[in-house]
Amino acid sequence: MALYSHVPSRDELLALMVDSVYADLYTDTDAIRTISSWRAGLQYVAERNWKLVNQHL
């Protein structure tokens, strides 16, 4: 018996959940275009990841 009839397996359900969370990670493409150095890029990625983690606690 399946818990969710529209998702064939637990693994696929988890994959869909992860995709849903990561869909919001890099939505601001204008900010990405203005990054001028690797340090600024790394800081941007770290800040977005930190914000994502805190949103889903």
Walkthrough of the structure:
With about 55 residues, this protein is mostly helical. It has a domain at about 25-55. It is about 65% helix and about 0% strand. The protein has 3 helices and no strands. The protein has helices at about 10-20, 30-35, 40-55. The longest helix has 18 residues, at about 40-55. The mean pLDDT is about 85.
Brief characterization of the structure:
The chain has about 55 residues and is an all-alpha fold. The protein has helices at about 10-20, 30-35, 40-55. The relative contact order is 0.11.
Secondary structure tally: strands: 0
- Unreliable spans: none
- Identify the quaternary structure here: single chain
Coarse morphology: elongated
- What pattern of helices and strands is seen along the backbone? HHH
Overall mean confidence score, pLDDT? 85
**Which structural class matches the secondary elements?**
mainly alpha
SS field, number of helical segments: 3
Give the % helix.
55-70%
What does the largest sheet look like? none
Distance between the termini: 30 Å
For the CA atoms, what is the radius of gyration?
Answer: 16 Å
Roughly what fraction of the amino acids lie in strands? under 5%
